[in-house]
């Protein structure tokens, strides 16, 4: 964890720190004036006949406060990290504190989350309290990509509709969150060429009844059947096992204009949903899956 | 800054006498006073303490009339519930308090200190207890000098126990403004108060006990910041407590029936009562001093003496510096109250008070915040329309549940949708957050950000509405 390139610099910093702290104390001691009840010296400045500058000793409690700060500093530096690479006798670190706090949080909240683990996902989805919890978790961990209303965005699927890339069963949703997903489509420009991509794009647009060039689409149909049906199925309705999207509906993950479809086909796509298993743990994922499932219920 | 000649800076000069800058406290045994100003102070004590000790117990709409619920961030004051969003009203109250202090100080000096300040009020209460148990000034001094015996121990114990009881009750009441006082009373009686409640009850109790019982005038002299800057607001026309030196001097003892003027004496009989009653232990006859808290105890005391001597009252009285210097006669003193400074304070104070009153009167019990999604600024729907997503936070500040609808303006064909059915029901004095999205056709829209207004309107009472500004982003 050391940020020093060699031990010398660590010692260098520690030495300067200690010398400064002790130096402050010594300096204070050296310049302090003995407290006597004798006459006080003046500095010789005199204004307006009577106003003089006295050379009084500092109030004792004040110098004591200074000495105490020096002692405090030394005690602090021996207990906590602060002298070069020395970790301090208490072994405190910010990471350790974070881990401790997370442990306490786990102990506090895990029982609440774990209560739902035993329940079936559909049962959890029907429980308003669990849904509210799921929503708060969603807003914390998922809304950055999928939006606070779970409506998705360009490249991030809409979770609030009935259209599912991998299937909409609650267990499938849970699997998506737990293990993550990689929605990969290879680039086809090298295979089809620019003209071929354009033709296939127009054919794809025709499948969902979008505006398209009939001639290009007709030329694209055989190319599609040759290259694309392996993943998108002969019906072009997609394959949940691979996460290949349905091309016959009006839901477009990467945009449904001709230019966007051409871009998708020629360059390919590489959608990544990270795996949340290690970060969130089973119980939270269970609540999240139930919440996401509940969003498309009744639509 | 004129350094005297022939002095070389830095050269150490002949020593001077050392002085210890710490002055040990001398105990002050203030004598009790009766009279008009003492009665006014009793009134001040009664009014302020009525508010303090009684208000937390009063009930309004089945809830405490005055409660500052920090945990839930709701402040109940009479019929209102204030939320953190209403902080501006607190600003108004504080500005009014400050200006009122300026105004009263400019007109009549440290009138706040003398009659209404908590330090004065609690000192007064603690001195009543002290007098009830130990007797007045003379007996107190005698008791202090007497050796420790059963009677002294009994009296001192009784006094401190009574002080402590009042102090503890004060601390308890203080916390009762922040925790419903009836619940607190239960907890207090069953020793089950929370750690913070316990701390504050005892902390506030101990400070009351320490400040009002032991430190008294020390608080005003050495701790209080207002004491320092109130004197800055004085001017030569400010009413201050003055000893009329022209009339009183040369002071001296005399026989009641003697012709003292023939003896060359003034009206002051040098009885020292004005010093004995002074809670800060000063001699007002030396003129105005910074220790004087304007309590007018010396006025009451001196007037009683003047009555006994059949001299006219007012040897010590409220007067002004200009009158004392003979710049104009006493009877035109009132005219000088209306000077530019006072009129200006009054004008500003009135304006702000009216503004605050109107603002609170017109306050609608509804607030809303719109928080735009931070990452997906704009989204294209399946129909090719543009959608912006927000989180709409509706705060219903009323004590009844309300139903609200949303509408948007600022663009043509702007549609507002929420993920939950409208009208949106919001429970009394609570907050509801819903997902809101604005949808518009990208045709004829310039790219960039378009300011839009969202109106949140009460279904049952269309007068209650809130307008929030946000922006619609077009890619």
Automatic annotation (TrEMBL), chain A:
Coiled coil: none
UniProt key word DNA damage: no
UniProt-annotated binding residues for heme c 1: 142, 145-146, 273
GO biological process, one term: proton transmembrane transport
Binding site for heme c 2: 185, 228, 231-232
UniProt keyword list: Cell inner membrane, Cell membrane, Electron transport, Heme, Hydrogen ion transport, Ion transport, Iron, Membrane, Metal-binding, Oxidoreductase, Repeat, Respiratory chain, Transmembrane, Transmembrane helix, Transport
GO molecular function, one term: oxidoreductase activity
Residues spanning the membrane: 12-31, 61-80
InterPro entries in alphabetical order: CcoP_N (IPR032858), CcoP_N_sf (IPR038414), Cyt_c-like_dom (IPR009056), Cyt_c-like_dom_sf (IPR036909), Cyt_C_IC (IPR008168), Cyt_c_oxidase_cbb3_su3 (IPR004678), Cytochrome_c_Oxidase_Subunit (IPR050597)
Cofactor(s) the protein needs: heme c
Subcellular localization, as worded in the UniProt entry: Cell inner membrane
Pathway participation: Energy metabolism; oxidative phosphorylation
Domain Cytochrome c: 129-208, 215-296
Cofactor note: Binds 2 heme C groups per subunit.
Family affiliation: Belongs to the CcoP / FixP family.
Complex and partners: Component of the cbb3-type cytochrome c oxidase.
Protein's job: C-type cytochrome. Part of the cbb3-type cytochrome c oxidase complex.
UniProt protein name: Cbb3-type cytochrome c oxidase subunit
Native organism: Sulfurimicrobium lacus
From TrEMBL, chain B:
Record's keyword terms, sorted: 4Fe-4S, Electron transport, Iron, Iron-sulfur, Membrane, Metal-binding, Transmembrane, Transmembrane helix, Transport
A GO term from the CC aspect: plasma membrane
TM ranges: 40-60, 87-108, 161-181, 193-212, 342-362
Entry-linked Pfam families: Fer4_18, Fer4_5, FixG_C
SUPFAM superfamilies on file: 4Fe-4S ferredoxins (SSF54862)
PROSITE patterns: 4FE4S_FER_1, 4FE4S_FER_2
The keyword 4Fe-4S is assigned to this record: yes
MF terms in GO: 4 iron, 4 sulfur cluster binding; metal ion binding
InterPro entries xrefs: 4Fe4S_Fe-S-bd, 4Fe4S_Fe_S_CS, Cyt_c_oxidase_cbb3_FixG, Electron_Trans/Redox, FixG_C, Helical_ferredxn, Ig-like_fold
Domain (4Fe-4S ferredoxin-type) ranges: 258-287
Gene3D superfamilies named among the record's database cross-references: Alpha-helical ferredoxin, Immunoglobulins
Name this protein carries in UniProt: Ferredoxin
């Amino acid at each position: 964890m050391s940020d020093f390139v060699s031990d010398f610099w660590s010692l260098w910093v520690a030495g300067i720190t200690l010398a400064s702290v002790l130096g402050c104390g010594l300096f204070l001691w050296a310049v302090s004036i003995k407290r006597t009840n004798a006459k006080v010296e003046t500095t010789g400045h005199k204004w307006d006949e009577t106003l003089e500058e006295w050379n009084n000793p500092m109030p004792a409690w004040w110098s004591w406060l200074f000495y105490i700060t020096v002692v405090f500093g030394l005690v602090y530096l021996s207990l906590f990290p602060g002298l070069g690479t020395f970790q301090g006798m208490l072994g405190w670190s910010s990471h350790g504190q974070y881990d401790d706090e997370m442990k306490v949080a786990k102990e506090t909240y895990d029982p609440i989350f774990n209560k739902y683990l035993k329940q079936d996902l559909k049962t959890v989805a029907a429980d308003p309290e669990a849904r509210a919890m799921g929503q708060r978790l969603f807003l914390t961990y998922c809304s950055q990509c999928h939006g606070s209303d779970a409506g998705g965005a360009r490249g991030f699927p809409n979770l609030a509709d009935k259209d599912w890339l991998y299937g909409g069963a609650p267990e499938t949703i849970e699997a998506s969150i737990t293990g993550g997903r990689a929605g990969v489509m290879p680039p086809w420009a090298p295979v089809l060429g620019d003209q071929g991509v354009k033709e296939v794009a127009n054919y794809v647009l025709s499948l969902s009844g979008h505006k398209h060039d009939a001639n290009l689409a007709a030329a694209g149909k055989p190319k599609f059947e040759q290259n694309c049906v392996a993943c998108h199925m002969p019906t072009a309705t997609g394959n949940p096992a691979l996460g290949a999207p349905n091309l016959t509906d009006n839901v477009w993950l990467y945009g449904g204009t001709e230019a966007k479809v051409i871009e998708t086909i020629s360059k390919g796509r590489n959608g990544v949903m990270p795996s949340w298993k290690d970060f969130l743990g089973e119980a939270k994922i269970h609540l999240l899956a139930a919440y996401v499932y509940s969003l498309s219920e009744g639509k | 800054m004129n350094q005297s000649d022939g002095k070389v800076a830095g050269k150490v000069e002949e020593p001077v006498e050392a002085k210890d800058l710490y002055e040990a406290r001398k105990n002050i045994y203030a004598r009790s006073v009766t009279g008009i100003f003492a009665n006014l102070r009793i009134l001040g004590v009664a009014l302020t303490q009525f508010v303090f000790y009684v208000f937390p117990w009063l009930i309004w709409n089945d809830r405490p009339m005055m409660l500052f619920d920090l945990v839930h961030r709701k402040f109940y004051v009479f019929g209102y519930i204030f939320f953190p969003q209403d902080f501006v009203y607190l600003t108004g109250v504080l500005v009014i308090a400050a200006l009122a202090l300026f105004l009263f100080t400019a007109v009549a000096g440290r009138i706040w200190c003398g009659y209404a300040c908590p330090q004065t009020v609690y000192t007064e209460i603690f001195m009543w207890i002290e007098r009830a148990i130990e007797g007045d000034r003379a007996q107190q001094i005698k008791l202090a000098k007497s050796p420790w015996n059963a009677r002294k121990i009994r009296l001192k114990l009784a006094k401190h126990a009574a002080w402590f009881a009042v102090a503890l009750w004060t601390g308890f009441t203080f916390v009762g403004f922040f925790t419903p006082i009836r619940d607190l009373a239960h907890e207090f009686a069953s020793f089950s108060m929370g750690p913070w409640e316990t701390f504050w009850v005892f902390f506030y109790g101990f400070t009351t006990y320490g400040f009002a019982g032991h430190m008294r005038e020390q608080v005003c002299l050495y701790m209080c910041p207002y004491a320092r800057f109130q004197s800055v607001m004085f001017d030569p026309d400010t009413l201050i407590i003055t000893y009329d030196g022209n009339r009183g001097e040369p002071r001296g003892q005399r026989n009641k029936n003697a012709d003292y003027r023939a003896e060359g004496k003034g009206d002051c009989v040098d009885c020292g009562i004005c010093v004995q009653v002074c809670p800060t232990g000063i001699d007002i006859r030396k003129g105005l001093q910074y220790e004087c808290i304007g309590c007018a105890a010396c006025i009451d005391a001196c007037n009683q003496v003047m009555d006994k001597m059949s001299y006219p009252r007012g040897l010590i009285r409220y007067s002004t510096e200009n009158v004392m210097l003979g710049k104009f006669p006493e009877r035109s003193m009132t005219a000088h109250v209306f000077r530019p400074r006072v009129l200006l304070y009054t004008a500003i104070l009135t304006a702000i008070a009216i503004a605050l009153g109107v603002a609170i009167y017109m306050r609608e019990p509804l607030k809303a915040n719109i928080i735009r999604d931070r990452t997906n600024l704009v989204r294209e729907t399946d129909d090719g329309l543009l959608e912006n997503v927000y989180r709409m936070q509706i705060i219903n500040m009323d004590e009844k549940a309300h139903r609200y609808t949303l509408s948007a303006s600022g663009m043509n064909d702007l549609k507002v949708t929420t993920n939950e059915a409208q009208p949106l029901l919001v429970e009394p004095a609570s907050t509801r957050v819903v997902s809101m999205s604005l949808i518009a056709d990208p045709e004829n829209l310039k790219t960039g950000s378009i300011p839009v207004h969202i109106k949140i309107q009460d279904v049952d009472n269309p007068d209650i509405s809130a307008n929030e500004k946000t922006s619609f982003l077009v890619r």
